[in-house]
Fold each of these.
Amino acid sequence: MWGLLCVTADSMIATILRQTPADRRARIAAWRQLSDILAQRGNQLADEDVRRALHALAVLRPEVPEKVRRDCARALARHGRFAPLVALYANDVPAVSVAMMREARLSEDDWLAVLPATNPMARSVLAGRGDLPDPVQRALAALGSASVALPQPPAAAEEAKDDAAPSQISELVRRIDKFQSSRGQPLGPRPAAPRLRAKEREGFLFETGPDGVIHWVEGIARGAIVGLSIAEAAFGGEPGVDGVAAGAFRQRAEMINARLILEGGAEEAGEWRFSALPWFEPATGQFRGYRGSARRPRSNETPYRAASGDAAGDSIRQLIHELRSPLNAISGFAQILSGQMFGPVSQSYRRMAQTIVADAAAVQAIIDDLETAARSSANPSSEAGAGEAEADIAAIVTQVESDLGGLLDDHQVSVSITRIGGPFRARTSDADARRMVGRLVTALVDVSEPGAAVIGQLVTDPEHDDMLQLRIVRPTAIRSATAAELLDPGYSPEGEAPGAAILSLGFSLRLVDSLARAAGGRLDIGHNALTLHLRSANPAKAEKDASQGD
């Protein structure tokens, strides 16, 4: 499915390094690509390739905006397992370092190797984490970091949108989630922030350096705010300050009731108002930063919602269009080569072009699924009409098994779905039923080991025909994964970073669940199996008895 990425990691690095980024966009793209390659395949690369990639990142870093570096750190932190890349991000500016060190997952040996190469800010964040092995905690204490870190509150469970991959597909999944969560919320005042239990959480004091980065705080958990900058405005709901604060910082002016957004636990996250004064060195008059205080906003200070569901839907459709247009162009040129429309083409190039055409068709199917998910999220009521249609799920399962013959042969996996009861007619359209069953089975085949069998049952209860079930046993690779992990677009059974081929698992399951709910069903993720529930179109037992009585 992801055959377009037909080059190896080392050749990708060589290709990126041969090109001199001509502008800001090219530098950002190179930064993301190199970071993603190291996060996914760093442990498999030759030392020379790793050294060259890390050197290139160090050279690019001053030219890449801090927000881009911070977003990359967030996306890679939970999925990256490559210690040198973690060390590189840990020694960035505080906002980037904090984003990486809050969530990075390394082995004990890797942590012990990385710690001496980190700065005090990174170690202070690590010292506040409670999930590190004891030897790592002792090493932190020996380095003197524990004295500057306050205990962190338990991390709130986050949706997969926060871990989304920097790839276009993962970004689209994140935006669909954001749109879906915002739907149905009427325009009007946001509800006032809940009263906080502890008085110290109602306000806090802070201090910045000359660069505007907050380095000292009292009255709130350090991890929620240390490393944020008041020098640049944050947009799109990102943590940070508004344009009022950023403008005042440039003028070294007083800040009064500026807006601040924080992430973190329930007591820290949300909207704040802060005021701050610049302070200067008495002897020299040199600017030293800002000192200020923050509080929760009063009810009359909360702005009205400006975003509308229509605008969000237009944005998603535009992004789908941006994905589809270059894909059609690539496929079109490949078809020209394959068909020799402009003249003779060598056999090797024709084979390559035919492969690209097939890969483009597979990616086109994924984009169609993205569009379906966006449409069902935007207008679930429009899918209600599908409930009047009927589909033979048993026939569709048979057809899917036949269609996946090539994939099953490539993976050396077999599929066995038995029928219990019957008939197996569901209240959904034939197209949606094919998409649900096909996506579910394909996703589980993709994560199955060679030689494994995907075992399932298609069940209907003649006594209670309100639902029929397609139940498939979890493959070994995802047997111990939680439901949240399986629905995460960036989750991989192998622990790889977002962008790996397995990335489609979380999206596929989300799509199946979305389509099922639009048809009055659902996808349940149990401990042993994944079960697709669909409304049965079979007459209920009471109706059968009544008709027989007549």
Amino acid sequence: MDTRGKTNAEFRAEITETLGQHDANFDELNHNFNRVNDALQGVMAELQAMRIAHSHRSSEREVNPFVGGSTSHDRSSATFNADKNHTTVKLNFPTYSGEGEDPTGWIFKAEQYFEFQNIDAPRQVQLASFHLSSVALQWYRWYTKSKGQLRWKEFVSALLHRFGPTEYDDLSEALSRLKQTTTMNAYQEAFEKLSHKVDDLPENFLVRCFIAGLKDEIRLDVRVKQPKTLSESISVAHLIEERNQFQRKFNNPVRPATTPSF
């Protein structure tokens, strides 16, 4: 904002107008959340219908080696007919070596593959084991000698304890201790990275942890707005951070450079 040549009153008027626009944005944000949620529900319903239709088009897809009745020998990828023009897409199953890699990303990709290719639960660990290498494969061979055949959830739990970050043992506690020290963008990135490593955390728990970790100058105003979801909490916090930046500019206006007298 250029403050040169403006009176104090003009500058205050501009700041007041800007802050008023931000307050209006809060109300509009609350109104839009329900509309966005309804739209997402409609998209999810359409995707579910498409998935059901696709599962019945067995004559138009290549049979996967881990679905009953398969004759294909390619276990690392699968192709399918994406539309009536027979466009093919090749999906590669991700590999994991365990050498300094965070396994949470690999687990997420593997579960996406299972869902998309309709891999039966009893075959999921078997398929995943074919794509372990190096240290991870060595650990898997040792672990299954004593534990026997594993279910997917058991495998994931053991893999995370072996190769996951040290805070995995109590991620919910680590999440509640997380604090904002710099910008909202940096805090949001750290919060999302940590929360994605554990499933089934209640929405209200995530909201409480997120708000509790905010800087004092942001946290109190976010609580006043009483956001109900994590996405709403994040949006409100960003708006408050931006408003605070405007207020700081108002309290410390840029003074025009003075010409030295001789």
Amino acid sequence: MRIALVRLCAIIAVTLYTTLAGCGSAGPSPEQTDSASPPAREAAGHDDHQGHAHAGDPDHAHPTEGPHGGRLIELGAEEYHAELLHDEETHRVTIHLLDAAGKEPVAVPSAEITLQLLRNGQFASYTLAASPDQGDPEGAASRFETVDTALCDALCHDEELRGRLQVTISGKAYTGTIEHKGHEGHEAHEGAEHTGHQH
């Protein structure tokens, strides 16, 4: 069983390496999204578990990419997801709050959310302001954005990116883990580690 698990992990790593676009690839075109979000590049977040089953739940599959082409961050035991995107040209960083399936927007009445990255052994905090998406109810937002060169550069170029996202949804505080290791030539996200929930 242990050998089978090692083989499965190796297959997943090879699949990730060959299929996931890194910082040098463009995100979806405006025609591919329903929102007014700018084109963005994929960022670190939820590790890919594609192709494996959880004990007791062989049909359970983790979503790995959000509807805007970004990487997903788990919030809670997959109660919600956050999609993290960044555009290296404009330095815009965007987070979309999504449902458990990682598909539909979830609007919250927060004016901002906090993204923290581990830099030099300490967490540096970045505030993303509410930027209501088309279809969000009045007084709530499912999209949060900031333009921050240092944050965007870290998301694209940090060789061992680690961080966390803090958000409150329906009165409950969630912290999502952002972690991946190594940009092989900045063309693929390789060796991602997943720590968002227990299996």
Amino acid sequence: MTDDSSKYPPDIQKLFQPKPPIVHIPPTDYPPEKRSTLSISPVSNYKSFIKKYVDNELPQRESRVQKTAMSKHRQKLLLANDRRKKQSDSFNRQMRDWNDPELLAKNENEVMKDPYKTVFIARLDYTLTELDISQYFRKYGVIDSISIIRDHNGRSRGYGFIVFEREADAQACISELSRTGVKMKERTILVDIERSRVWRNWKPRRLGGGLGGRDYVKEGRVASAAASGRRIHIANSSTSHYKSDNSHKSGSHPHYNVTTHTRPIAMPPPAKYEPISAPKPYSYTSGQTSSGRSIRSIRGGE
């Protein structure tokens, strides 16, 4: 390649001139082969000193430090976390027990009977006995057994089960009393089907399901550690705990037609400066649906 920069002007020729060579500067450090520095010692030589400090000096230093007392806010946080953990563990354990098919089959063979012949009664007076209930419900048909659920001390829990010998008798009882209930000893008893085994994927109220409950009752935040998913506490004698023939497991059964009611609609107040006349009667609306069947049929009347 020829240098044709001579044909350019002097100012342009300066751009093509080579740069001066790089100045050699001697290094400021010694080369690696001529160094004579100390070698690095391992940390294991100080292991004995560390152990001596941890065993003897550290406890003395910590004993002289004054620990501040835990604040009330911190104590409340720890208690809340503990309650939340207990509630979560209890809920998960009860859900496992409730969804356990082996436990359900065992209870059906030992304690439970045909669900289509069973009538569920709730909001019972705590002084009611099986004899008092049988004297009223025997008019619907022959009763096989009556069970009022009680706690470990023998006190009534406020609900129970009535098992008829014929399925038609149970269906007639539910169809007549599910709308209005029945008054027994200052309380109106609620009558419904046994939804836990009749309806698929049914869960009780303590596990996030159910249709009961009242607005003025505060729900418990901590589930009982002794509660189980399918609690069986039958108050009857051992003679009523016979093995069922499980005839309800095969064949088709008609569903109960339980009619739901809504709350009464309050009439609007009279207009201003209008003379007040006799109170107008309340109007009620009722409807039958195929999917939404409720047990809250008498809440407004209590």
